[in-house]
Design a protein that fits this description.
Blueprint: H1 3-6, E1 16-21, H2 55-64, E2 72-73, E3 80-85, H3 103-111, E4 117-120, H4 131-140, E5 144-148, E6 168-174, E7 192-195, E8 199-202, E9 210-213, H5 216-233, H6 239-249, H7 270-274, H8 290-295, E10 340-341
Length: 364
């Protein structure tokens, strides 16, 4: 990604990203001054700055961490984080179940704010009442919503929500060579791919040390940060235009009109937008995912529907077939991105060169 070069053009300054997660600890060295807790409405602000697990804080640092004190330096260190803690399946502690706000209420509250990007590094296999309507409302308010597709491709590969809802950008996880993670769930609701393997995160809620993890959560955070970089450089663009620019410049070795069920339109490359001062993002009112949003989730998303991520088909550059990446360890964590610990050396090395991906047409 060549983050150092991108930061000469944009750091995400002026863009607010809502991190809807397990809460965000604003007191880690990397996040001091980066978290706008006062902007969370009281009605949905239950323990927003208390992270019971460490997940939400990790996502916030991957997006907007400054790298201070030896912490993570995120991809958009100039952006700001607005934290939300929700009660949703594995995203909530036992005490949250009756007190933390529900996802539809949180999305609506964010929609009524000046936050531009809603980053949701979680997934579950059920549709919850009120969420589709809240998402449509946020879209009407010009928000860009991004979510992970899930980490269970090697078992049941369930349809992951909220990523599978219309108007939410579904993010798959890939490694630095372009291989899709073996764990990364697939289906026609996968829109883009982002770095998601071998990514640092807080080990737990003691915030004493970092561990290495993998998942579509990290990939979601990095995709959200990428959008923040672009929106900061082009503040007059709409959510449609920011997303269109990510789709148009995504790295892929297949036709744009034939997206993959594993990596969607390809691997995000925000640098390709930022380095082109005359980049044309298309019409402000044109939804770049109009076809997908109209169709909804289609086809069988089970591993047997096409080449399974666990079957590891042999690599081939002629037809886009390739092996899946990623170890079996820590595949339950939904997060990802190449960032630097401490003084930002070798940050975000993912380029747009060779691809090693499992290729399956969405019509399959």
């Amino acid at each position: 990604m060549k983050a150092d070069e991108m930061w000469k053009v944009s750091t995400g300054k002026g863009v607010k990203v809502a991190v809807v997660d397990t809460g965000v600890n604003p007191n880690t060295p990397s996040l001091k001054g980066q978290v706008l807790a006062d902007e969370v409405p009281e009605s949905v602000g239950y323990k927003a700055t208390e992270d019971w697990e460490g997940h939400g804080t990790s996502m916030a640092e991957l997006i907007a961490g400054t790298g201070a004190g030896g912490g993570l330096k995120g991809l958009a260190p100039g952006a700001k984080i607005v934290p939300y803690r929700i009660a949703m399946k594995d995203m909530a502690s036992e005490g949250d179940k009756d007190k933390a706000p529900e996802l539809p209420d949180v999305i609506r509250a964010i929609a009524d704010s000046d936050v531009k990007i809603i980053s949701m590094s979680f997934t579950e296999d059920i549709e919850r009442p009120g969420v589709p309507e809240a998402i449509k409302y946020a879209r009407s308010k010009g928000k860009l919503m991004i979510a992970g597709t899930g980490n269970d491709a090697q078992t049941k590969n369930f349809i992951g929500y909220p990523a599978a809802y219309p108007y939410v950008v579904g993010i798959a996880a890939a490694d630095k060579s372009g291989s899709v993670g073996k764990f990364s769930e697939h289906g026609n609701y996968v829109d883009l791919a982002s770095p998601g393997l071998d990514v640092p995160r807080w080990c737990d809620n003691t915030f004493r040390s970092y561990c290495t993890g993998q998942g579509t959560s990290q990939a979601t955070a990095i995709a959200s940060a990428s959008a923040a970089l672009i929106w900061s450089a082009h503040p007059d663009w709409t959510a449609n235009q920011v997303l269109a620019s990510l789709i148009d410049t995504a790295g892929r070795d297949w036709a744009k009109d034939d997206p993959s069920t594993y990596l969607g339109y390809g691997l995000i490359r925000p640098r390709k937008v930022l380095e082109n001062t005359d980049f044309n993002p298309g019409s402000a009112g044109t939804d770049p995912l109009a076809k997908e949003n109209a169709a909804g989730v289609t086809g069988d998303t089970s591993p047997s529907a096409s080449a399974s991520t666990s079957s590891q088909p042999s690599e081939s550059t002629s037809d886009g077939q390739a092996s899946a990446a990623g170890s079996d360890s820590d595949s339950s964590d939904n997060t990802t991105m190449w960032v630097a610990l401490g003084a930002a050396a070798g940050v975000l090395l993912l380029g747009g060169g060779a691809f090693a991906v499992i290729r399956s047409r969405r019509s399959a």
